Amino acid sequence: xxxxxxxxxxxxxxxxxxxxxxxxxxxxxxxxxxxxxxxxxxxxxxxxxxxxxxxxxxxxxxxxxxxxxxxxxxxxxxxxxxxxxxxxxxxxxxxxxxxxxxxxxxxxxxxxxxxxxxxxxxxxxxxxxxxxxxxxxxxxxxxxxxxxxxxxxxxxxxxxxxxxxxxxxxxxxxxxxxxxxxxxxxxxxxxxxxxxxxx
Length: 199
Ligand SMILES: CC(C)(COP(=O)(O)OP(=O)(O)OC[C@H]1O[C@@H](n2cnc3c(N)ncnc32)[C@H](O)[C@@H]1O)[C@@H](O)C(=O)NCCC(=O)NCCS
Ligand SMILES: Nc1ncnc2c1ncn2[C@@H]1O[C@H](COP(=O)(O)OP(=O)(O)OP(=O)(O)O)[C@@H](O)[C@H]1O
Hints:
This protein is of the alpha/beta class and 199 residues long. It contains 9 helices and 5 strands. The radius of gyration is 17 Å and the shape is globular. The chain binds dephospho coenzyme A and adenosine-5'-triphosphate. Its main location: cytoplasm. This is Dephospho-CoA kinase. Belongs to the CoaE family.
């Protein structure tokens, strides 16, 4: 069963593409969701984050204050790398467990890893195919501001914390252009589906 890596810059449309691939029958492993799972209250990862960044990054219930930590790390490379060093090993381990479970289940045509930081956090390449969701950084900035209500400066800091579109596109086996309408993205994803299951 092929293992597909789906990556793209923030607000590039990965989740939109992943949802469509799941409708086609793929098992999707979502790195962003795994991040939230390993950061759950009481987790070793959250204890390490609180130790590294102080109690201000926890809310009154002891859960991670995601906005507060985001403000601390985006725009501060040293702080971001410190956070990544805490979170990424747990994300990699849990992702591997979910891949193994999906392959053991063997009930799908492909396994898709929806992973924003494929390039930035690259360790090894078990991927049969790398799919990149691509919209220019300017369009992604517009989406973050107009659709998610982010402050322009905060949105730009998140974009700047990731590799360039050129660097990410250089790794792509398949590119899905998401700069048009949602319907065009869906149609392009459908066209890619047959290529993914033929691997
Ligand atoms: C900083 C945190 C608390 C902000 O949480 P928030 O809920 O605002 O954002 P969320 O986690 O949903 O991420 C949204 C998007 O931000 C971008 N992003 C998140 N973390 C990072 C990072 N370390 N480097 C670059 N971009 C990132 C990705 O495009 C991601 O899809 C959180 O993103 C985090 O803990 N990040 C570190 C773990 C990580 O690297 N996650 C990326 C997926 S592997
Ligand atoms: N042509 C398009 N294709 C996909 N998404 C689009 C398009 N036009 C606008 N959007 C919007 O852009 C936003 C980003 O989409 P999505 O959540 O799929 O991106 P993402 O890459 O998963 O984001 P993140 O990096 O935060 O996980 C969504 O609100 C989506 O509705």
